[in-house]
Amino acid sequence: xxxxxxxxxxxxxxxxxxxxxxxxxxxxxxxxxxxxxxxxxxxxxxxxxxxxxxxxxxxxxxxxxxxxxxxxxxxxxxxxxxxxxxxxxxxxxxxxxxxxxxxxxxxxxxxxxxxxxxxxxxxxxxxxxxxxxxxxxxxxxxxxxxxxxxxxxxxxxxxxxxxxxxxxxxx
Length: 171
Description:
The chain is mostly helical. Helix content is 58%, strand content 6%.
């Protein structure tokens, strides 16, 4: 055995190699994994994606609530419609989760709010249509003017709230 820079190098003939190639024997320390595996997190601080996934539903609920608060005075029944809308907030979060709006931040670091505008538009459209259906059936006292004003306000508030949440987490 020959030792070069702290590593043992076996003689080729001793290993059965006859073409003259040298085979190195690595020290045990070098065989340990130094870099984390893909997907492993070694820092004591949570990843940005993990925090974003926790903060985005809060930002979405706040954005929907603010959009409805701005649109509610246009409607006929302020208190009953507001209470029914607050009860539907988990459905809005569920819609956003169903459209995959909370998973992209874990997967891609450079994910932005512009990347999910299509999904946000779908969430607002489906959510507003569900509110219209509840109003038609008589489950909720939502007015037409109220919902027509709510939809664009909700889209703008959701996009703005998500952008603000990501900006806070980047700091």
